[in-house]
Amino acid sequence: MSAARDPRPLTGEPLALDLLNTRWNREGVTQDLLTDTEGLAVWLAANGLDGTRAGDEDTLRHLRESREAIRVAVDGSPAEGAPLVDAVLAHGRIRARLTAEGAAEEPEFADPSWGPAWLAARNYLKLLAEAPERIRPCAHETCVLHFYDTSRNGTRRWCSMAACGNRAKASRHYARSKES
Fold it and tell me: Cα(129)–Cα(86) distance, rounded to whole angstroms?
């Protein structure tokens, strides 16, 4: 059975931000993909994690905990979010190995239901190490989505130019035309 279509307006962001983006606004109403295991299956499939042994209520609960921890760290302060993110990271570790192909690192979890949540929290640390200033919320006042700015000059403002960027441009145009 294949997962249902992903209804979110922004997908394809790094894992940590993609997890944050499982909440979005549609016509003034907050939507949440992670309300049930069906939405969980959609998110796992969208991120190539549907082959894991995850997909139950425990995985869903752990992912919600990870999402909240990352949200507090991104939208609040690192000091506030650090203990929450660390609590998620305490459920897994990186195992260094030497394979026929060379050095390798593999995540390990005592409880596989923590796997997706741990991977998202670990990805957040990676983004912080690479370029924390590129982790951004959308500039539109009603949008709750986040993105990792990969533009060359680092000046992206909108989750999507077609959606939020266009709404802002239309709003400015309307205000100018109303003045004249």
Answer: 15
